[in-house]
């Protein structure tokens, strides 16, 4: 809790009077400067910022120099110093006003006034730039508005005295709120110049006009990714009254490339002034319509006056347009009727309460005349009100239909419990007071514990190169069980006390999925797998340590790693298995602990199940799962014994994992948010990219080039995955109508013939996935494969064959099929996945499981299959993306560390892989070179994952 200094505290020559404000870098006090007889604003900063002598000297030197910076729109700095207890302070001009973010001026001022504000800021910054000072922290909280619309810029020098690279500065200062005002070069760690301030002012201007910043996100990483990668939505989407010149000025200030921005603040201020001189033309069309409406309503403007004239003289008067509102109209009519009634009462000599006047013939005639004189206004307002009566329900219905999948159900409440953006799994204690969660930090995963009534977080376990999964609290809430292993591989079962202790290994068997603990806490259950995954077994560890298998599945049947849930009565364990009628879809079954049998709790079909938990009363399950026609992971409630499934969530987030408190009031999950767009770069400058698409899920599940340099990609913009095509120009996207009837599960993973117009892609059906072919104009649409579970097609060099991945009896193999159909031929019998052909068509690269180590590596084969010609190590698993470089001498693959993806290159000649891209933020979901090698396309964006708690979900 922040401890404020009491009134009367003396710091040097300053006597503190009262507190003014506070932020992450300290407190601001109103103080009296006894040496100059003036009030000052005294900012006190944390002592951790000046722990070294060199830092103290830097601070004193900067603020000694910056006192010479004097401009009518810059808050005067008087002094910078260090208190006796080591805290740096800054004494500055005390301004009676409010910061721009506190006032919300964008909603109170007209366009001309907003432009005037920005011009003042630009002039102040231009003056500072000419004196050699950068600000680098322009944001609304550093802009004070005084009476008369005078703007003053605060906090010059602070970013220079305490750069983000210094100890303590970054965690204290960087939040999702202020990260949105950084320039791309500041985010990337490049040395900024005056153009960084221009970008930040562009963000402030955009916010004043639109009501929000152009770059948003749930946490700092998402905001920084948005600053670097995302293009702001056009201002015209939020306001229709903006002149084109103004949107161009803001757009130029927000250019990602500093070379494409204004080069000086003077240039930006000049364009704004020129625009201001033509402001009478901004409202021409609006004034025409207002004058017409005023005439229709019988509102008489003063003789010889237009709306523009009234605007100039009426700033401090009531807005004339207010008379057009129904509320003002009713007030005017009521006043007229009251006057009429009073006159009638006077004629009769009655009192205001005398209702006999209402039957008077002369009063009724006067009322009729009044209504006749107002008939046009009454008609327009009546039509307006009836229009609203019809329009509001219609708009609500349209909004409900169009946005149904984007909103959470009514009554459901959610709240984020973390804001790190890199959570992988989470569990809540039975009493609902504590959560445990795993979080990624580079190549390390930490297992954290947090009490919900305490902001402190404690680390109880760390794993380097490994991951924690299947977090499960013991019934007494004192320990957490988990599986620890390599990513995408089997692991081992452990437990650790939540208040600290040594990790205890419970089983050395290879474990998949999440464990379960019996209601009395004495027994553990898990699913074990043999070395080649051909057999999975449900095992119970008894209280005496004996391992007892109670159920077994042999390929093609298997227990799915969707976790286990021990029933509240302790008699059965719910688990996930595949349906015998379809090896693709999943169902939930209950296995009796005494081995007397099993029964189906829910038949599905499910495409994926992440986790299941029993409700404490035994009357239902909560499941994190995706259905066959929606790949989004949502939370579901399954009623027992009916097996009916009801969706709890239903928005565009993914909810992975589920944990429930003992009273069923608190449900937690890991909420995943993601965004992906298509970007392109020149093959010669891969780090300079241009954005092509702007939907939320473009390219994540497929990206391919045509022979004429167009891009075919998969988009989830419509709620399901479909195939689209785009040229190299922005806004050139259109869907390809290649969906066959019955393909309700979506179409994805497209491949385009290198020689022609043929397209092959995966279609999801109720009983599996199949390859279909079409031409780009949808002619000759037909199914190619009879066997299901096929993925990742690629064309052979002559365009006549298709090489693809297929899952057969839980073994991943590579096969080939003729474009015209026929019997498939197996190319690689050993476990292999996701093939890609070299540019000359002679070699095939894929993910290959090394039987000696059990690890998935990069295998290079002849295009005719057989045994690998060479094998390379690399991070990743069976679904890793592999691409050939245009020269055919190397392969590339993405590596994601700490939530940031970069592309690495492995030469076929051998040697260590090298990093090709130098991205510091964001994820790369897919990438591929054009056939000519001239371009490279990326599906690039971000993923954020945090613990969310849900209440009122039943």
Question: Can you describe this structure?
Answer:
It contains 16 helices and 54 strands. It is α+β, with helices and mostly antiparallel strands. The chain has five domains: about 90 residues, Phosphorylase Kinase, domain 1 (2-Layer Sandwich), CATH 3.30.200; about 160 residues, Transferase(Phosphotransferase), domain 1 (Orthogonal Bundle), CATH 1.10.510; about 100 residues, no CATH class; about 240 residues, TolB, C-terminal domain (Neuraminidase, 6 Propeller); about 270 residues, 6 Propeller (Neuraminidase), CATH 2.120.10. It has a seven-stranded antiparallel sheet, with no helix packed on it. Strands 1-2-3-4-6-5 form a six-stranded antiparallel sheet. Strands 10, 30, 31, 32, 53 and 54 form a six-stranded antiparallel sheet that branches. About 10% of the residues have low confidence.
Features:
954 residues; alpha+beta; Phosphorylase Kinase, domain 1; Transferase(Phosphotransferase), domain 1; seven-stranded antiparallel β-sheet; six-stranded antiparallel β-sheet; 54 strands; globular
CATH homology group of the largest domain: TolB, C-terminal domain
CATH architecture group name of the largest domain: 6 Propeller
**What ranges have pLDDT less than 50 throughout 5 or more consecutive residues?**
161-172, 279-329, 350-361, 382-408
Question: Shape from CA axes?
Answer: globular
Mean pLDDT: 80
Strand content: 35-45%
How many helical elements? 16
Number of separate domains? 5
What is the fold named in CATH at topology level of the largest domain? Answer: Neuraminidase
Structural class: alpha+beta
- Give the helix proportion (percent range): 10-25%
How many beta-strand runs?
Answer: 54
Distance between the termini: 36 Å
Describe the main β-sheet briefly. 7 strands, antiparallel
Strand order of the largest sheet: 15-16-17-18-19-20-21
CATH class of the largest domain: Mainly Beta
Q: What's the Cα radius of gyration? A: 34 Å
């Amino acid at each position: 809790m922040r401890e404020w200094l009491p009134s009367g505290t003396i710091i040097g020559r300053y006597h503190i009077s009262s507190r003014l404000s506070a932020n992450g870098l300290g407190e601001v006090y109103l103080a009296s400067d006894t040496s100059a007889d003036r009030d000052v604003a005294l900012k006190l900063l944390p002592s951790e910022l000046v722990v070294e002598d060199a830092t103290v000297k830097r601070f004193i030197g900067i603020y000694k120099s910056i006192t010479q910076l004097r401009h009518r729109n810059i808050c005067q700095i008087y002094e910078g110093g260090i208190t006796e207890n080591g805290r740096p302070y800054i004494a500055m001009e005390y301004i009676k006003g409010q910061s721009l973010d506190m006032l919300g001026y964008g909603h109170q001022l007209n366009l001309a006034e907003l432009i005037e504000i920005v011009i003042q800021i630009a002039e102040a910054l231009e003056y500072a730039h000419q004196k050699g000072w950068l600000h680098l922290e322009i944001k609304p909280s550093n802009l004070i508005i005084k009476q008369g619309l005078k703007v003053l810029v605060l906090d010059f020098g602070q970013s220079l005295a305490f750069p983000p690279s210094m100890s303590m500065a970054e965690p204290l200062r960087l939040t999702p709120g202020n990260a949105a005002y950084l320039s791309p070069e500041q985010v990337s760690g490049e040395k900024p110049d005056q153009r960084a301030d221009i970008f930040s002012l562009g963000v402030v201007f955009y916010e004043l006009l639109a009501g929000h910043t152009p770059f948003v996100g749930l946490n700092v990483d998402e905001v920084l990714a948005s600053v670097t990668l995302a293009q702001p939505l056009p201002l015209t989407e939020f306001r229709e009254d903006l002149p084109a010149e103004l949107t161009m000025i803001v757009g130029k200030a927000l250019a990602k490339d500093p070379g494409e921005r204004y080069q000086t603040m003077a240039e930006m201020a000049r364009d704004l002034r020129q625009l201001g001189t033509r402001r009478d033309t901004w409202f021409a069309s609006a004034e025409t319509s207002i004058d017409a409406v005023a005439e229709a309503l019988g509102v008489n403007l003063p003789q010889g006056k237009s709306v523009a004239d009234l605007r100039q003289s009426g700033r401090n008067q009531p807005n004339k347009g207010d008379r057009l509102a129904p509320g003002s109209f009713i007030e005017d009519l009521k006043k007229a009727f009251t006057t009429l009634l009073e006159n009638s009462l006077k004629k009769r000599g009655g009192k205001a309460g005398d209702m006999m006047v209402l039957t008077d013939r002369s009063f009724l005639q006067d009322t009729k005349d009044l209504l006749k004189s107002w008939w046009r206004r009454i008609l327009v307002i009546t039509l307006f009100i009836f229009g609203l009566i019809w329009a509001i329900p219609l708009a609500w219905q349209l909004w409900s239909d169009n946005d149904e999948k984007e909103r959470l159900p009514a009554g459901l409440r959610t709240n984020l419990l973390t804001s790190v953006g890199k959570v992988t799994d989470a569990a809540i204690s039975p009493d609902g007071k504590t959560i445990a969660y795993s979080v990624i930090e580079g190549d390390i995963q930490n297992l954290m514990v947090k009490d919900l009534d305490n902001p402190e977080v404690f680390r109880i376990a760390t794993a380097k190169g490994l991951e924690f999964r299947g977090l499960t609290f013991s019934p007494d809430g004192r320990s957490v069980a988990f599986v620890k292993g390599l990513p995408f591989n089997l692991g081992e079962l452990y437990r650790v006390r939540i208040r600290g202790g040594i990790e205890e290994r419970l089983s050395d068997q290879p474990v998949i999925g999440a464990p379960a603990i019996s209601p009395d806490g004495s027994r553990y259950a898990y699913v074990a797998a043999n070395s080649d995954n051909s057999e999975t077994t449900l095992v119970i560890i008894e209280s005496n340590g004996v391992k007892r298998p109670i159920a077994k599945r042999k390929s093609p049947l298997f227990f799915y790693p969707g976790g286990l849930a021990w029933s509240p009565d302790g008699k059965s364990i719910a688990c996930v298995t595949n349906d015998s009628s379809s090896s693709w879809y999943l169902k939930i079954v209950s296995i009796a602990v005494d081995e007397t049998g099993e029964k189906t709790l829910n038949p599905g079909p499910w495409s994926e199940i992440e986790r299941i938990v029993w409700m404490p009363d035994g009357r239902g399950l909560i499941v994190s799962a995706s259905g066959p026609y929606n790949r989004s992971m949502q939370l579901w409630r399954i009623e027992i014994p009916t097996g009916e499934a009801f969706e709890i969530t239903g928005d565009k987030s993914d909810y992975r994992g589920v944990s429930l408190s003992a009273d069923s009031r608190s449900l937690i999950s890991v909420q995943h948010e993601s965004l992906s767009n298509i970007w392109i770069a020149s093959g010669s400058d891969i780090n300079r990219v241009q954005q092509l698409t702007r939907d939320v899920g473009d390219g994540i599940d497929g990206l391919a080039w045509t022979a004429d340099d167009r891009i075919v990609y998969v988009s989830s913009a419509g709620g399901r995955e479909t195939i689209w095509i785009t040229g190299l120009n922005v806004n050139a996207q259109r869907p390809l109508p290649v969906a066959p009837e019955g393909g309700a599960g979506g179409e994805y993973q497209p491949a385009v013939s290198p020689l022609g117009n043929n397209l092959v892609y995966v279609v999801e059906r109720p009983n599996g996935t199949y390859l279909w072919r079409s031409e780009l104009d949808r002619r000759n649409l037909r199914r190619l494969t009879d066997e299901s579970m096929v993925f990742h097609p690629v064309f052979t060099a002559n365009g006549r064959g298709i090489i693809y991945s297929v899952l057969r009896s839980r073994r991943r193999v590579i096969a080939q099929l003729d474009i015209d159909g026929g019997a498939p031929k197996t190319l690689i019998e050993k476990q292999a996945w996701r093939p890609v052909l070299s540019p000359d068509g002679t070699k095939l690269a894929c993910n290959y499981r090394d039987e000696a180590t059990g690890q998935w590596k990069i295998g290079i084969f002849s295009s005719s299959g057989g045994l690998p010609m060479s094998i390379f190590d690399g991070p990743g698993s069976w679904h890793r993306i592999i691409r050939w470089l245009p020269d055919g001498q190397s392969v590339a693959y993405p590596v994601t560390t700490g939530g940031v993806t970069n592309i690495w290159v492995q030469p076929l000649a051998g040697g260590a892989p090298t990093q090709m891209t130098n991205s510091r933020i964001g994820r790369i979901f897919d990438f591929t070179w054009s056939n000519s090698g001239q371009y490279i396309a990326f599906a690039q964006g971000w993923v954020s994952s945090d613990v969310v708690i849900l209440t009122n979900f039943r």
